[in-house]
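User: Show me a protein chain along with its predicted structure.
Assistant: Here is one chain, sequence first, then structure tokens.
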Amino acid sequence: MNKEMWLILLTVGLISICFYLFKLNIFLWGNKEGYFIGFVFYWMWCLLVPLIFIGKEEIKLLYTLKFPELRKRKLLAALFLILPLIFGYGFAFPKVIVNAGSKIITLSFFLALVNASFEELLWRGTFIKIFQANKFVCIFYAGTTFGVWHIIPLSFSATIAPGGMISFIAFAVVLGWLYGWIAWSSKSIFWVTISHILLDFSGLGARIYFS
């Protein structure tokens, strides 16, 4: 099989594998520790797959600022980067910041930095390198699979989003499409990674472990 088929199979397999790993780790280590260990496995996957499929040098190139398809659509790209942040800081952040101390705020930033960086490297960066000419796969397949993956952590930790898991997954899928379009059009994951880090931080993820 070629790299394209392997990448499709690995991302589909990631969903089912992660579910059982999260479940096993929570059974063995408890809710908070097992949940975190499940994410560590996910982050390792998000890093190792790009290293194997595209290599260090190509990963570095993903952070260069190029805009071959965005020169006339920079305002649209900016809108796609900012809209998720409006939702995050307009809805989630005011609810979670009230009872958050400096420890939760600091650790949440580092969690956001790791999670968002690794996710963008796999779901956007690797796909635009492997499926360079296939806009549908880079944007819609990768974005949809990225969103569906979130069923795994949400199965073991409830969301504060109105509408629960369904609305969260829908938001994640649309987010994947928006980020996918920017990454595919710019051939870079620099700006989507920045936006994703800020978005993840708005939920103060460390409160799951320390509240």
